[in-house]
């Protein structure tokens, strides 16, 4: 999974494809986008956040943290590389639906394979295959908004895409908890959800073939990346996003193990059930703060203030479970962290659009920003497993993540062109 900004494309520059004069989107496209993204995030949360962690623990309980960090890190590298490749291939074909359908349908047999393997190496290989097919699905689905939605309707479309994260996260946690005792069946359920949604989307959202696009040479892509980061304000926005995302995913990826080995859960409450409680709380808080933060930052025209404050709030949230291992502390952490991260992502995305180096390169530079989303997700599992292994627990992990969030808050201060 590569976390990306709503309404932007991770592939080779499709974000500006649609125009006010472009064909109107298919009737009912927004609900289909919501369904497609919800299914994707349900798998992305339920599989690595619950089932994969349980499977790795069952194979090798003693080294579960190191093994989970290895599997998560390697698969994240695979996902980050495969996403733009899949996007470029769909660009060259001039079609999105066949890639959405292929990726979605292939999710089912790959999930069957993942549930049938019994060694860490085979788990890693199977989950890398899972990331491959899901990134075929994701790259094509992400490109639907800029391809088919007129500029005037982009806000509504982005909202439909964005709501897929909290809704899908909640569904993923609930389904994962329901099949915690039978993760093989759980894998099949997630695969079936994605496959069915892909079939529904492609059968209902018809598309017109677009002119094929030539791939951008690698040298030009590298040059474009360097050119964007030479801009002072954009560079600091990039650094701030990378720091906060690193802190967030260093903790989020190990949530099940944190609940098992760090948190004092009430009698009768298992870690899997605890995840199913925390995720909806976090999602609701994220939705509220996303809407409220975006509205307030618009009203007061103060992007830096809200970005810095929300990153600082995320840091405060991370300190709570570091100083207390109680279940109440974990509940408070989940809500406060959701408030901070949701507001940050909403307002920081708006801030970034205001510091893009060149308007004509907006799609390219937003793609550069997505490196600040995807890159830390690669590093986070390795960093987190190393911290936990060296410190012997999760307290240090929370504190390091809090420091990263504080640094992310401070990184917006040097930005000059936005208040």
From TrEMBL:
Residues 10-23 have a biased composition (Low complexity). GO terms for cellular component: plasma membrane. It comes from Streptomyces showdoensis. InterPro entries: MFS, MFS_dom, MFS_trans_sf, Tet-R_TetA/multi-R_MdtG-like. It is a multi-pass membrane protein. GO terms for molecular function: transmembrane transporter activity. Keywords: Membrane, Transmembrane, Transmembrane helix. It is found in: Cell membrane. The chain crosses the membrane at residues 29-53, 65-86, 106-129, 157-179, 185-205, 238-259, 274-296, 305-323, 329-356, 368-388, 394-412. This is MFS transporter. SUPFAM superfamilies: MFS general substrate transporter (SSF103473).
């Amino acid at each position: 999974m590569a976390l990306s900004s709503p309404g932007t494309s991770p592939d080779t520059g499709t974000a500006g494809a649609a125009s006010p004069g472009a064909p109107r989107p298919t009737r009912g496209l927004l609900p289909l986008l919501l369904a497609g993204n919800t299914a994707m995030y349900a798998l992305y949360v339920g599989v690595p956040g619950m089932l994969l962690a349980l499977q790795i623990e069952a194979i090798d309980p003693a080294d579960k943290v190191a093994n989970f960090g290895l599997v998560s890190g390697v698969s994240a590298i695979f996902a980050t590389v495969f996403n733009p490749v899949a996007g470029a291939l769909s660009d060259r074909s001039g079609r999105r639906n066949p890639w959405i359908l292929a990726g979605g349908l292939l999710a089912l047999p790959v999930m069957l394979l993942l549930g049938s393997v019994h060694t860490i190496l085979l788990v890693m290989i199977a989950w890398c295959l899972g990331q491959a097919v899901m990134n075929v699905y994701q790259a094509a689905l992400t490109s639907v908004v800029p391809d088919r939605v007129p500029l005037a309707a982009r806000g509504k479309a982005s909202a439909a895409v964005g709501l897929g994260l909290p809704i899908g996260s909640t569904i993923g946690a609930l389904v994962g908890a329901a099949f915690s005792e039978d993760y093989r069946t759980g894998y099949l359920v997630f695969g079936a959800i994605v496959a069915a949604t892909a079939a529904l989307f492609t059968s209902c959202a018809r598309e017109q073939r677009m002119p094929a696009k030539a791939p951008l040479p690698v040298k030009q892509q590298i040059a474009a990346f360097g050119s964007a980061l030479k801009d002072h304000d954009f560079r600091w926005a990039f650094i701030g996003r990378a720091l906060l995302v690193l802190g967030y995913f260093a903790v989020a990826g190990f949530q099940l193990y944190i609940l098992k080995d760090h948190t004092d859960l009430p009698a009768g409450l298992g870690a899997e059930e605890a995840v199913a409680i925390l995720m909806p709380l976090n999602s609701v808080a994220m939705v509220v703060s996303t809407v409220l933060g975006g509205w307030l930052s618009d009203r007061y025209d103060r992007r830096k203030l809200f970005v810095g404050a929300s990153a600082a709030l995320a840091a405060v949230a991370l300190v709570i479970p570091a100083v207390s291992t109680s279940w109440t502390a974990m509940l408070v952490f989940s809500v406060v962290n959701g408030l901070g991260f949701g507001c940050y992502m909403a307002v920081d995305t708006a801030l970034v659009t205001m510091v893009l180096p060149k308007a004509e390169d907006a799609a390219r530079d937003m793609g550069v920003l997505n490196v600040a989303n995807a890159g830390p997700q690669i590093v986070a599992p390795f960093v987190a497993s190393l911290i936990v292994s060296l410190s012997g627990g999760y307290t240090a992990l929370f504190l390091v993540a809090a420091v990263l969030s504080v640094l992310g808050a401070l990184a917006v201060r040097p930005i000059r062109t936005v208040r």
